[in-house]
Each structure stands twice: as C-alpha cells, then as structure tokens.
Specification:
There is one protein chain. The protein has 271 residues and is α/β, with parallel strands linked by helices. Helix 4 packs across helix 5. A hairpin with a 2-residue loop joins strand 6 and strand 7. The protein is 34% helix and 25% strand. The chain has a domain of 70 residues. It binds adenosine-5'-diphosphate and magnesium ion (MG). Adenosine-5'-diphosphate (ADP) binds next to helix 1. It is a peripheral membrane protein. Keywords: ATP-binding, Cell membrane, Membrane, Nucleotide-binding, Transport. This is Amino acid ABC transporter ATP-binding protein. Pfam families: ABC_tran (PF00005).
Length: 271
C-alpha cells in the first residue's frame, strides 16, 4: 500500500522500534559442583544471521547451548528468546522458574541438532520428523506427515521416508535430525558439533544442508570446528575459552586476524 504520510518508524528523526534479537545471552554463569563452566557469557544472535561458536573441548560450548534451551539452568544471568526470558519469569522483582509446560512451549520455538543425531531408533524417518508436531498437538497426524515429507525432500531424503535410522548413513541420519529440528518451525536452530561424529566423506552433505538453511534466512547458532564453513557462512564468530568469550566479531576478523593469543593458538591447532 502506498502512502504519503511518514510513519514514526520511517522518520529519520525517530528511533526505529527495537526489534529484539532472536537470542540474547546475558552474563550467564553455570557451575557443576565446584567447577565454574560458564563465567559470565554474553552473546547476541540476530534474526536471520548465522552465529558460529568456536572453542577448545571443555570450554563450555555444549553447556551454553543447553542453557539457551533451558536444559541447564544458569546460576546467574539469563537468556532471552525474541525478547522473552527463557525458563523463568519476573515475579515481585525476582526470577521464578516457569512451569514445565511453559518451558516445553519455549523449547518448541528452538530447534536442536545434536552431535550424535539422537533419532528415535524405533520410528521411521518420516515419523521421526512428524513426531513433535503431533505430540505437541500442533498438527494432525496426516498434516504432520505432509510437512515431514516436505522437510525430508528439502534435506535430500525424500526417497527414504520409510527407512529406519539404522538403515541410513551417519550423514543421512544427521540430515533427518535437521529436518526434525525444523518441524516445529523454530525461530532459531542450535547445532552442537553437527558433523563431529561423521566420517570425513559425509561431512559435506550435512554442511550443504546447513548452508541452505543459512541462505534461506533461518537463524542459526552453530558450534563447530569446521573453520572453512564458518568463514563462508557465519555472520558472526564467537571464540569461547574456559567459559569466557575471548573474542568475537565478523569471520574475517576473528578467523583471519584474531587479536587474542588463545584464538590464534586454537586456530593453528584446528586448521
Ligand atoms: P564443550 O562442549 O566446549 O566441550 P562442555 O560444555 O561439554 O564443553 O563442558 C564444559 C565443562 O563442563 C567440562 O569440563 C565438562 O567436563 C563439564 N561438564 C559438562 N557437563 C557436565 C555435567 N552434566 N556435570 C558435570 N560436569 C559437566
Ligand atoms: Mg561439546
């Protein structure tokens, strides 16, 4: 619709309305017993962007993703999903845990792809992808299967709908896991080292699918050691070490001109 009036949002003198980022991690601290695993981590995942988290083994990358999904509760700090607190709500100035049901609803807005696929072994590929929309009451069985077929075609597995996970290669299983993560139309998809468990010759097919999601504007938060992939696809790279963000920025900066010796050291080892 064309209009001559200028709305406040379009006026250069008015600030644009604040659109909250897809994910905002704010000063998150996480302890396991006496060990502090996250030491005040903050990072922002903007809508439609790909954020890649790098870091040595044990630096807290998986824990950070699990905090985003509220699979782990942080001892301090918080996470917001599209501006909304994850797992907690403010009540009389204090944070109170949300109900299990509300937490599940939030988790439905976040896709999660694990290192080891975690498919249901007793379900066909099609049912693996259709399961969540049915279980959450979001879609009827037939409708969910229709959506699942479309997603399987998208990850190049339209012809394997009736197979069981054990009949597929690791790369195919991971592509099913990605289709499953998309089934609830999440606002962001988290990947925890999605290609680390794969034989080298199967890595490419999984990265191709993730690249396709990135190109189509899906918001992604990806933990990976695939530096070439990060350089090509990431909008923002975060280097985590010993529970702290050591440096972050555009890939050309962090990967090609790292300012911190620990980042340089890490990149030398993985490249
Ligand atoms: P990364 O994914 O970067 O390898 P993790 O987040 O898995 O690191 O782990 C960070 C640290 O937290 C490690 O020292 C690990 O041993 C410890 N850790 C992770 N999960 C648990 C847990 N459930 N209980 C106790 N310690 C844990
Ligand atoms: Mg990990």
């Amino acid at each position: 619709m064309s209009t001559t009036a200028t709305t406040p949002a379009e006026s250069p003198t008015e600030p644009a309305p604040r659109v909250p980022p897809a994910v905002e991690i704010h000063e998150v601290q996480k302890w396991y017993g006496a060990q502090q695993v996250l030491k005040g981590v903050s990072l922002t995942v903007r809508r439609g962007e790909v954020t890649v988290v790098l870091g040595p083994s044990g630096s807290g990358k998986s824990t950070l993703l699990r905090v985003v999904n509220h699979l782990e509760k942080p001892e301090a700090g918080h996470v917001r999903l599209a501006g909304e607190l994850i797992g907690v709500r403010r009540h009389k100035g204090r944070l109170k845990e949300l109900s299990e049901r509300a937490i599940l609803a939030q988790r439905g807005r976040i896709g999660f792809v694990f290192q080891n696929f975690n498919l249901f072994p007793h379900l066909t590929v099609l049912d693996n992808v259709a399961a969540a929309p049915v279980a959450t009451g979001r879609l009827g069985k037939e409708e969910a299967k229709e959506v699942a077929r479309g997603l399987l075609a998208r990850v190049g597995l339209g012809d394997r709908a009736g197979a069981y996970p054990r009949q597929l290669s690791g790369g195919q299983q991971q592509r099913v896991a990605i289709a499953r993560a998309l089934a609830l139309r999440p606002e962001v998809v988290l990947f925890d080292e999605p290609t680390s468990a794969l034989d080298p010759e199967l890595v490419g097919e999984v990265l191709d699918v993730i690249r396709d999601l990135a190109t189509s504007g899906t918001t992604l938060l990806v933990v990976t050691h695939e530096i070439g992939f990060a350089r090509e696809v990431a909008d923002h790279v975060v280097f985590l070490d010993e529970g702290r963000v050591v440096e972050q920025g555009p890939p050309a900066q962090v990967l090609d001109h790292p300012s911190h010796p620990r980042t340089r050291d890490f990149l030398r080892r993985v490249l």
